[in-house]
Design goal:
The protein contains 23 helices and 27 strands. With 741 residues, the chain is α+β, with helices and mostly antiparallel strands. Among the domains are: 110 residues, Ribosomal protein S6/Translation elongation factor EF1B (Alpha-Beta Plaits, 2-Layer Sandwich), CATH 3.30.70.60; 248 residues, TIM Barrel (Alpha-Beta Barrel). Helix 10 packs across helix 13. The longest helix is centred in the first third of the chain and has 22 residues.
């Protein structure tokens, strides 16, 4: 976490902005396209905020590299310009008081990748249009014109990508403040800054130079909902511009960090380690999404493919979805969790330009096609003179996208793009032959492996809980509770409280709407996947070798199946510590548990089963949330997290909040065995007018509904995106406990 102060955290950057793109349908690079793109950005000026001194939230454009301007600059210096397929451009924000060190840092990174620095160029700017705050924080803005001795542009792009990653890592390590590289590409360049949309060309004079030509413009006006604007976090970023909020960004960053150790060498060879960090851990949610987009793009996927991986349409509950497309989405759910939340994006790699929406369509994106241009933007009416010639208009719906091939001008809509993606590989065959679907019903037999009455005393089950919580759940009725719970703070209680009671759920606010899990059930999913995950940049049949569950709430029979499933290796780890050691014994026991889990995963185990079922008079239970979080973070820190899933077998968990805490701290699935047994016993004794099996199924169903409600309050639709998110506020817990879990 970045250092923060009360009521403000720099990790909580979110945006609600104006975004879009304009593209020429005939692949023509002209200054007219640049002028029209700037005009579009002007039309979004009202979507940004402005301080009293005139400082804006940030705006910018992405265009084709302005080859004619660069050629003019080089000729003016007496340098013969390289051919355009060997010419690249690095846009750099440098600290004004340390330009030389920053330049040297970039130059060294370029040389290491075999890229020649042809010349430095100071970008002509007009600081007078800036507000006082923007002018005071303005970096020195320069461009490095670069070249390579080969004509493979994709190879050139990868070299520039690695050079930028190296430069950024070095800058962070050396504490170089005010350093950023908005773009480094042989195809595209980004002009952005801390100004309003209406002054973009007043600041960047290149944009009014008739020799600045492009065949597309991606434009963005930022509206920073709850954070301090900055030059670096103005958009577009390296690949995309984003309007919305990624509610799951904490989990996404954590899982991307876990993936760094499992990138593999099929694409990047020995350079895989140089991709780290895949996603920066601080800054805006949009910047992190851009990082993830770029690493997948540079690894060989198309923009549309990456969009459908990271921001997929809702597919899990669509009954009439094409089978091939459903298999595509299911397979890619094995590779990565969604970046969930309201999102409208415009993105380009200089080959294509796309626009797309999240699964709920919670941000607007309207499109217009004329015989010469395609315009997609947050609103209509940005260029009336263009839109009056429209041959087709519309708006993107939930989960839809639109793509323009910048070479041929071909415009493709969602159905065509997705059909092509679904046909890339035999995803349906891979899933049919490799994925193990586990779904076993409950039974009416008492579990004789433990003493339920004794364990109920250990885990603090009360008569009130049985009457107000479990009794209702057994009949299929959801208990009426507030977010988290509505009793006094656990830290102030006179009696011991279980650990989940110290955590309170966070909820969506500002511009980010919570979901309605009942009316919008179509877009929500509890599908759960268990096992070792493959590299996110590869696509092989082995990636489909996972266990799939319909729900993270497991029956005893499902747990038993996992312990002996063919092709999967499970280890059963009791989460206990010697009762005689008292409080001092828990810390060493947690470390020993983490050591055992780490050793097992290194030995090839892909299912780590954490259980407190073995509690006895001599051995006390480690709080399961603490055990789960500690193992989760240990495996991440050792680069092992993607090689195994954590399955919790717990007598402590009994309500939806307990379940949410376990999933939020890294558990893939939970078997609340003691609560299930309590419900079964109630039904068997006639305390509820339901058969034992039906009572257990009702209990699971109510838990699932409660979990969906908790997710929906943060605007999160899928359990895979919620897992590991840690979207809780801890009240009354020591910082050391929070750091451990």
């Amino acid at each position: 976490m970045t250092a923060s102060f009360p009521l403000y955290s720099p990790d909580d950057h979110h945006d609600a902005c104006g975004v879009g793109f304009l593209a020429d349908r005939h692949g023509r690079s002209t200054h007219r396209v640049v002028r029209m793109g700037v005009m579009c950005l002007h039309g979004l000026d009202h979507r940004g905020a402005k301080a009293a001194d005139g400082t804006g939230d940030g705006a910018g454009v992405m265009t084709r590299v302005p080859y004619r301007i660069l050629e003019r600059v080089l000729l003016g210096k007496g340098i013969e310009p390289p051919s355009r397929d060997r010419l690249g451009l690095v846009m750099a924000f440098l600290p004004p008081d340390d330009r030389d060190s920053a330049r040297k840092l970039i130059e060294d990174a370029l040389v290491a990748e075999g890229i020649e620095l042809v010349a430095w160029r100071r970008v002509p700017v007009g600081p007078k249009v800036l507000g006082d705050a923007a002018r005071a924080s303005m970096p020195a803005i320069e461009q490095a014109i670069v070249s390579v001795p080969y004509s493979d542009v994709d190879r050139f792009e990868r070299a520039l990508f690695l050079a930028r990653k190296t430069a950024e890592r070095t800058a962070r390590a050396s504490g170089l403040v005010g350093f950023a590289i908005p773009s480094a590409s042989a195809r595209t360049v980004v002009y952005k800054g801390l100004f309003t949309a209406s002054t973009v060309e007043g600041f960047y004079w290149d944009l009014i130079d008739p020799m600045f030509e492009s065949d597309f413009v991606v434009f963005h006006q930022r509206y920073s909902t709850n954070t301090q604007p900055s030059w670096e976090y103005a958009q577009p970023f390296h690949v995309l511009a984003h309007n919305g909020e990624i509610n799951t960004v904490a989990a996404n960053r954590s899982w991307m960090a876990a993936r760094e150790a499992d990138i593999g060498e099929t694409v990047w060879g020995e350079r895989s380690s140089d991709l780290s960090p895949l996603v920066t851990g601080a800054g805006s949610d949009s910047a992190s999404l851009d990082d993830a987009f770029e690493v997948l793009l540079r690894s060989g996927r198309s923009l549309a493919h990456v969009k459908e991986m990271l921001i997929p349409a809702a597919w899990e509950n669509v009954a009439d979805l094409d089978e091939a497309l459903g298999a595509f989405y299911e397979y890619h759910a094995f590779l990565t969790e969604p970046w969930d939340g309201p999102a409208a994006i415009a993105a380009s790699d200089g080959v294509q330009v796309i626009a797309g929406l999240d699964r709920n369509g919670l941000r607007p994106a309207r499109w217009t096609e004329t015989s010469d241009f395609v315009l997609v933007a947050s609103e209509a009416g940005l260029i009336p003179s263009l839109e009056v010639d429209a041959v087709a208009t519309g708006q993107l719906g939930p989960g839809e996208l639109m793509a323009v091939d910048l070479e041929t001008g071909q415009v493709r809509h969602s159905e065509e793009v997705k059909a092509d993606l679904a046909a890339r590989k035999p995803y349906r065959d891979w899933i049919s032959n490799q994925t193990l679907y586990v779904q076993h019903p409950f039974d009416d037999l008492e579990d004789d492996r433990y003493d339920p009455d004794a364990l109920a005393r250990v885990f603090g089950y009360t008569a009130e809980e049985r009457r107000l919580l479990l009794h209702q759940m057994a009949t299929g009725v959801e208990p009426v509770l507030s977010m988290g719970h509505d009793t006094g703070l656990a830290v102030l209680a006179d009696t011991p409280q279980r650990l989940p009671r110290f955590f309170h759920q966070t909820f969506a606010q500002v511009t980010n709407p919570p979901m309605d899990p009942i009316r919008e059930r179509l877009v929500m999913s509890l599908r759960t996947y268990l096992g070792a995950r493959g590299s996110i940049i590869d696509e092989t049949v082995e990636h489909a070798r996972l266990v799939e569950l319909a729900s993270p709430v497991m029956s005893d029979a499902e747990v038993q199946h996992l312990t002996s499933a063919e092709g999967f290796d499970a280890v059963w780890l009791p989460t206990l510590f010697p009762a005689a050691d008292g409080e001092s014994g828990m810390g060493p026991a947690v470390q020993a548990l983490c050591d055992a889990a780490e050793e097992a995963v290194r030995d090839g185990v892909n299912l780590v089963m954490l259980s407190d079922r073995e509690v006895s008079a001599e051995m006390a239970p480690i709080p399961m949330v603490l055990a789960t979080g500690a193992v989760h973070h240990r495996l991440i820190s050792r680069g092992l997290r993607l090689r195994a899933s954590i399955v919790v077998v717990s007598g402590e968990a009994r309500d939806a909040h307990d379940l949410a805490c376990l999933v939020g701290f890294g558990a893939s699935a939970v078997n609340p065995y003691l609560a299930i047994e309590q419900v079964r016993a109630m039904a068997a004794a006639g305390d509820v007018d339901v058969a034992p099996v039906a009572a257990q199924e009702n209990y699971r169903s109510v838990l699932e509904k409660g979990l969906l409600k908790i997710m929906s309050k943060m605007g999160i639709c899928t359990i895979s995106a919620y897992r590991g998110s840690e979207l809780f506020e801890a009240i009354g817990l020591d910082e050391g406990v929070c750091d451990l879990a």
